[in-house]
C-alpha cells in the first residue's frame, strides 16, 4: 500500500460529481497531480504514448476531468493523429479509474457513463480505424487501460477491445514483447474475466518468455526480476488444460518423472478451471506423496495454503506433512531457520497440542534470527487465537514493535499486521486486554498511528488504511479509550467509500466495542464516537441501497454470512435491504457450492426462511458433481433450523445415502445433523447411518470428545437425535440413554434460561392461577419424560374441565424412570407453551425446526398442547381481555 499526501479539504472535493465539475473547482486529478504523482497500484502505472512535443498532446495529458478532456477532443478533431486518439483514450480511462478508486461504490456508474458517452465511442471508433498507425506498445497500453475498467473482450460489450486483442494476439507482435509488455499483457487477460482467450496463445507466450530469459541471462535488474516473477505466476495460473483424453494420458506420464516443485503452483488454478482440475489434482497428489521428503518447506507451505481453498484431500496431505515434521524432529535433522519458519506456517494453526509444543520449542531457539518481515508472516499463524505459550507470544509482539510507520524498510508490513489484528484474531481478543504484553502492544500501535497523524507534513491514510485503523480502535477498545479526534474528522468521508467487506468488519468492531462498555464506567466520549460511527454506517449504506443491484450475488452472500457468523450477534436495520435482495432471488442466478455453504450458514444463524432460494440451493447440490457429504450436512442443518422441506429433498437424501455408502469424508457432527434432519424433519430413515451413530465405538468417541472439548458440541445433537428416534420412530427399537446428559447438562442450561423470565410470563402465570382456582393446580417450568421444556402445565378432568392438583404427577420427581407419561384416569395433561420471536423464523409465524419437533413430541407423548403466540398477546391491551383470551385457549380450543 502507498501513502498519499493530501489536505483535509481533499475529502470534501471527492464528493463532486465526476461528470459535472465546475471550472472554478479543482478536480480530483488536479489535486493529486499538484503534489506527488498519484499511483493506484504498481501494475497500474501505464507508460505514456510515445512522447511527441506538440501542444495538443500536452493539453490532452494535462486534462484532469472528462468535462475538460472530451470538449478538447471534440474541438480539435481535424488535428487528431493516431497517437492523439490513443492518448485521449488512455487519459479518459485513467480519470475514471482514479475517481473509482476513492468511490468504489460508484465504479459501475462511472464505467457505464464512460461506455455510453458518445465521445468515448467516437474515440474507440477512430482508434479502431487507425490501429495500423500505432505500434504494439500503444496497443498493450490501450488494452490494459480498458480491461482495468472491467470491460470484457466480448463482441457485445466492446467490439473495439476484441478487435484490438485480435490484432495484438498475432505471433509477430508477441515476438516483439519485452518483459514489461508481456507482464502487462498477461495481467490484462489472466486477472480479469478474459483468461479463456489466453489459452490458444499459451505456447507462443511461453516461448517468448523463454527467449527473453535467455537474452537477459544472469544480468537481472530489480525491474526485470519483478516482471519475471509476475509472468511466472500469471502463466502458471493459465496452464492450458483441454478436455481431450490425451491430456490425461500425458499427465500420467509426466507426474512420476516431474520434479517435486512442478505442481506447487497448480492449486492456484482451482478457481479458474474447476472441471479440468479434477483430472490433474490426482496426478499432482501422487507427485507430492512420492516426493514429499524432497519438497522444500516453503513449497509445502504454498501447497497447503492453496489447498485450503481448492483441495478436498487436504487432510491426507496435511497428515503426511505432519508425519514428515515429526520424523525430522525425532531424527534431529538439521533445520535452518527458514525451514522452521515455513514448517510452522504450514502446520501450526491446525496441528495438535503435542506438535505445537515442539514447534514452540524450536521457535524459541530461532526467533531472534527472524527479521520483521518474517515475524509478520509468522504472526499470521502464531497468535493468541492459535498459541497458548504466553512467553513466545510476548517475544513475538516485542519483535513486531520493530515494524513502524516511520521505517521505510518495514512500513509495508505495518498494514498486514494491522489486518491480522482486525480480521483474523476473533477467539482470544481478551489477550490484548488481560495480558500485559498484549495491552502494551496495542498501546504501541496506537502511539504509532497517532504519531503519524500528528506529523508536521500532515500524513493522511488512504481509504483501506483508514478503515483498518477505525476497525482497530473499535475492536481493541482498552477501557473505552476515545478515538483520536484527528481520526474521527474524516471518518464520515471514509465510511462513505466502504465496500461490503469493510462495512462488515466495521460493524463487527462496533458491536465488540458496544459490548465492552458498561453504563457506570464507560468513557462517554468513546461511547458517543462509536454511536456516531454506527449512524454513519447506517446513513451511507441507506444512501447506497439504489446501487445494491451492482453487487454480485456471491458478494452479498459472503457479506451477510461474515456478519451473522461473527462472535457477536449483529442485528441492525442496516442489513434488512441486503436480506430483501436475497428474498427477491432470481431463479436465473446461478449458485456455486461456496454460495450454498455460505447461505446455509447464514440462514442457520439468522433463521431466515426464503423458500425459492432454499429450493435453488437444493438443486445446485443435486446437479453439481463435486458435492460433498459435509456440505449436504451443512445444508441439512440449515433446513432443520428453518423447518423447510425443499421440493427435491427426496433426491438429495438419496444422494446423501449414496455418498455415505461410498465412504465420502464426513465428521461426527455432520453424521448427527444428517440423521437428525432425515428422521426429525424429512421423515426418512438411513439405517446404515443410524446403526453407525448408535454403535458403541461412535458413542465412545462422543464421550472422549466431550471430555476434551465442549460437552455440547456433540452431546446436544446426539441428545436431540435420541429424542427423535425414540418418539417418532419407536419401530427402530433404539433405547433412550441420555438421562445423565439431561440432568447434568440440559437441565442446568434450562434453569439458567428460566431465571431470565420476562413480565409477560409473570402475567400469564397469575392469570392461569386465577382461572384454575389456585397455584396448586398449576406447574411452571416443568419437563416431559424426555426432557422437553414446558412453560406451564396443568391437569383437567375430561368431563367437567375441573383442575386436579398435579404435585403427585410432577414428572421432575421421577424423570429417570419409566418414559411413559403418567395421566390420571378420566383426565388430560395440558402443556401450555408461551412463544417468543425466537420460536419463529425471522418476521414470520413459521416455527423453527427445533420448536416444531418439540411441540410434535409433546402431542405424541400424550399432552394436549396449548400455544400462546407472542404476537397475539402483544396486541391485547387490557388485563380483562387477556384473562378472556387465556380462558378461551385453555377450555375451548383443543389443539
How many helical stretches? 44
Shape: globular
CA-CA gap between termini: 65 Å
User: What is the SS-derived class?
Assistant: mainly alpha
Work out the number of β strands: 5
Mean pLDDT reading: 76
Largest sheet: 5 strands, mixed
| Assembly state (oligomeric) | single chain
Share in β-strands: under 5%
Could you tell me the radius of gyration in angstroms? 33 Å
User: Residue ranges: pLDDT <50 for 5 or more in a row?
Assistant: 1-52, 237-262
> Level of helix content?
55-70%
Could you name the key traits of this structure?
mainly alpha, 5 strands, 59% helix, 3% strand, globular
Q: Secondary structure elements and their pairing?
A:
Layout: H1 8-13, H2 28-33, H3 55-62, H4 66-75, H5 82-102, H6 107-116, H7 118-129, H8 136-147, H9 159-168, H10 171-174, H11 179-190, H12 202-216, H13 222-237, H14 245-257, H15 274-290, H16 297-310, H17 314-330, H18 337-347, H19 353-366, H20 372-379, H21 390-400, H22 411-424, H23 431-434, H24 436-453, H25 463-475, H26 485-488, H27 491-495, H28 500-516, H29 524-543, H30 553-564, H31 576-583, H32 593-606, H33 611-623, H34 629-642, H35 649-661, H36 668-680, H37 687-693, H38 696-708, H39 712-727, H40 739-754, H41 759-772, E1 779-783, E2 789-797, E3 803-804, E4 827-834, H42 849-861, E5 864-868, H43 870-873, H44 879-891
Parallel strand pairs: 4-5
Antiparallel strand pairs: 1-2, 2-3, 2-4
Helix pairs in contact: 3-5, 4-5, 5-6, 5-7, 5-8, 8-9, 8-11, 11-13, 14-15, 16-17, 16-18, 18-19, 20-22, 22-25, 25-28, 28-29, 28-30, 30-32, 32-34, 33-34, 33-35, 34-36, 36-39, 38-39, 39-40, 41-44
InterPro entries: FAST_2, FAST_kinase, RAP
Domain RAP: 830-888
Organism: Adineta steineri
Amino acid at each position: 500500500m502507498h501513502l498519499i499526501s493530501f489536505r483535509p479539504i481533499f475529502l470534501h472535493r471527492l464528493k463532486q460529481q465526476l461528470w459535472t465539475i465546475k471550472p472554478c473547482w479543482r478536480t480530483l486529478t488536479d489535486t493529486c497531480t499538484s503534489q506527488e504523482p498519484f499511483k493506484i497500484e504498481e501494475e497500474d502505472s501505464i507508460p505514456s504514448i510515445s512522447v511527441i512535443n506538440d501542444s495538443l498532446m500536452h493539453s490532452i495529458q494535462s486534462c484532469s476531468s472528462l468535462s475538460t478532456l472530451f470538449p478538447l477532443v471534440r474541438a480539435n478533431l481535424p488535428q487528431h493523429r493516431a497517437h492523439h486518439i490513443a492518448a485521449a483514450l488512455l487519459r479518459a480511462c485513467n480519470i475514471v479509474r482514479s475517481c473509482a478508486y476513492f468511490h468504489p461504490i460508484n465504479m459501475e456508474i462511472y464505467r457505464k457513463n464512460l461506455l455510453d458517452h458518445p465521445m468515448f465511442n467516437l474515440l474507440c471508433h477512430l482508434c479502431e480505424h487507425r490501429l495500423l498507425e500505432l505500434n504494439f506498445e500503444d496497443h498493450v497500453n490501450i488494452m490494459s487501460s480498458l480491461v482495468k475498467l472491467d470491460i470484457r473482450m466480448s463482441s457485445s460489450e466492446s467490439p473495439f477491445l476484441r478487435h484490438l486483442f485480435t490484432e495484438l494476439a498475432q505471433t509477430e507482435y508477441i515476438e516483439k514483447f519485452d518483459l514489461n509488455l508481456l507482464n502487462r499483457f498477461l495481467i490484462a487477460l489472466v486477472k480479469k474475466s478474459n483468461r479463456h482467450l489466453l489459452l490458444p496463445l499459451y505456447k507462443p507466450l511461453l516461448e517468448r518468455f523463454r527467449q527473453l530469459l535467455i537474452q537477459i541471462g544472469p544480468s537481472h535488474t530489480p525491474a526485470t526480476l519483478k516482471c519475471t516473477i509476475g509472468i511466472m505466476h500469471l502463466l502458471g495460473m493459465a496452464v492450458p488444460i483441454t478436455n481431450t483424453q490425451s491430456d490425461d494420458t500425458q499427465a500420467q506420464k509426466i507426474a512420476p518423472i516431474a520434479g517435486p516443485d512442478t505442481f506447487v503452483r497448480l492449486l492456484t488454478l482451482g478457481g479458474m478451471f474447476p472441471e479440468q482440475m479434477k483430472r490433474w489434482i490426482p496426478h499432482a497428489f501422487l507427485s507430492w506423496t512420492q516426493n514429499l521428503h524432497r519438497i522444500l518447506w516453503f513449497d509445502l507451505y504454498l501447497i497447503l495454503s492453496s489447498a485450503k481453498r481448492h483441495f478436498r484431500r487436504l487432510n491426507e496431505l496435511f497428515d503426511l506433512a505432519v508425519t514428515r515434521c515429526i520424523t525430522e524432529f525425532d531424527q534431529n535433522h538439521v533445520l535452518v531457520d527458514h525451514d522452521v519458519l515455513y514448517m510452522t506456517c504450514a502446520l501450526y494453526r491446525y496441528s495438535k497440542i503435542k506438535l505445537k509444543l515442539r514447534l514452540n520449542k524450536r521457535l524459541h531457539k530461532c526467533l531472534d534470527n527472524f527479521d520483521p518481515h518474517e515475524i509478520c508472516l509468522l504472526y499470521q499463524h502464531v497468535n493468541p487465537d492459535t498459541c497458548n505459550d504466553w512467553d513466545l507470544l510476548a517475544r513475538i509482539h516485542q519483535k513486531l514493535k520493530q515494524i513502524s510507520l516511520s521505517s521505510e524498510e518495514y512500513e509495508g508490513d505495518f498494514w498486514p499486521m494491522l489486518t491480522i489484528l482486525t480480521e483474523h484474531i476473533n477467539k482470544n481478543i481478551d489477550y490484548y486486554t488481560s495480558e500485559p504484553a498484549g495491552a502494551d502492544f496495542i498501546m504501541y500501535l496506537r502511539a504509532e498511528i497517532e504519531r503519524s497523524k500528528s506529523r508536521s507534513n500532515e500524513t493522511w491514510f488512504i481509504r483501506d488504511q483508514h478503515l483498518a485503523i477505525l476497525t482497530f480502535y473499535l475492536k481493541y477498545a482498552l477501557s473505552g479509550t476515545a478515538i483520536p479526534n484527528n481520526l474521527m474528522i474524516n471518518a464520515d468521508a471514509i465510511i462513505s467509500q466502504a465496500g461490503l467487506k469493510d462495512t462488515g468488519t466495521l460493524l463487527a468492531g462496533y458491536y465488540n466495542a458496544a459490548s465492552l462498555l458498561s453504563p457506570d464506567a464507560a468513557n462517554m466520549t468513546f461511547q458517543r464516537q462509536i454511536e456516531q460511527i454506527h449512524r454513519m454506517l447506517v446513513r451511507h449504506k441507506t444512501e447506497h441501497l439504489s446501487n445494491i443491484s451492482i453487487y454480485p450475488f456471491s458478494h452479498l452472500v459472503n457479506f451477510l454470512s461474515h456478519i451473522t457468523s461473527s462472535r457477536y450477534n449483529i442485528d441492525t436495520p442496516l442489513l434488512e435491504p441486503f436480506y430483501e435482495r436475497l428474498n427477491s432471488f432470481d431463479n436465473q442466478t446461478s449458485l456455486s457450492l461456496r454460495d450454498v455453504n455460505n447461505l446455509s450458514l447464514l440462514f442457520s444463524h439468522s433463521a431466515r426462511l426464503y423458500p425459492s432460494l432454499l429450493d435453488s440451493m437444493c438443486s445446485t447440490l443435486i446437479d453439481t458433481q463435486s458435492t460433498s457429504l459435509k456440505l449436504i450436512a451443512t445444508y441439512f442443518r440449515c433446513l432443520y433450523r428453518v423447518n423447510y422441506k425443499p421440493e427435491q429433498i427426496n433426491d438429495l437424501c438419496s444422494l446423501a445415502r449414496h455418498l455415505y455408502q461410498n465412504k465420502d469424508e464426513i465428521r461426527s457432527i455432520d453424521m448427527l445433523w444428517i440423521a437428525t434432519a432425515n428422521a426429525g424433519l424429512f421423515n426418512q430413515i438411513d439405517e446404515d447411518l443410524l446403526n453407525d451413530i448408535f454403535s458403541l465405538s461412535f458413542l465412545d468417541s462422543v464421550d472422549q470428545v466431550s471430555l476434551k472439548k465442549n460437552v455440547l458440541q456433540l452431546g446436544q445433537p446426539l441428545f436431540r437425535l435420541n429424542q427423535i428416534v425414540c418418539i417418532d420412530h419407536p419401530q427402530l427399537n433404539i433405547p433412550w440413554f441420555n438421562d445423565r446428559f439431561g440432568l447434568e447438562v440440559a437441565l442446568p442450561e434450562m434453569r439458567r434460561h428460566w431465571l431470565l423470565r420476562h413480565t409477560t410470563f409473570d402475567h400469564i402465570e397469575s392469570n392461569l392461577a386465577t382461572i384454575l382456582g389456585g397455584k396448586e393446580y398449576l406447574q411452571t417450568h416443568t419437563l416431559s419424560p424426555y426432557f422437553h421444556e414446558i412453560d406451564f402445565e396443568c391437569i383437567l378432568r375430561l368431563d367437567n374441565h375441573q383442575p386436579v392438583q398435579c404435585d403427585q404427577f410432577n414428572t421432575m420427581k421421577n424423570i429417570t424412570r419409566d418414559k411413559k407419561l403418567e395421566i390420571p384416569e378420566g383426565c388430560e395433561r395440558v402443556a401450555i407453551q408461551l412463544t417468543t420471536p425466537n420460536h419463529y423464523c425471522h418476521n414470520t409465524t413459521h416455527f423453527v425446526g427445533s420448536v416444531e419437533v418439540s411441540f410434535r413430541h409433546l402431542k405424541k407423548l400424550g399432552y394436549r398442547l396449548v400455544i400462546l403466540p407472542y404476537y397475539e398477546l402483544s396486541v391485547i391491551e387490557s388485563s380483562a381481555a387477556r384473562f378472556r383470551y387465556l380462558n378461551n385457549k385453555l377450555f375451548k380450543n383443543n389443539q
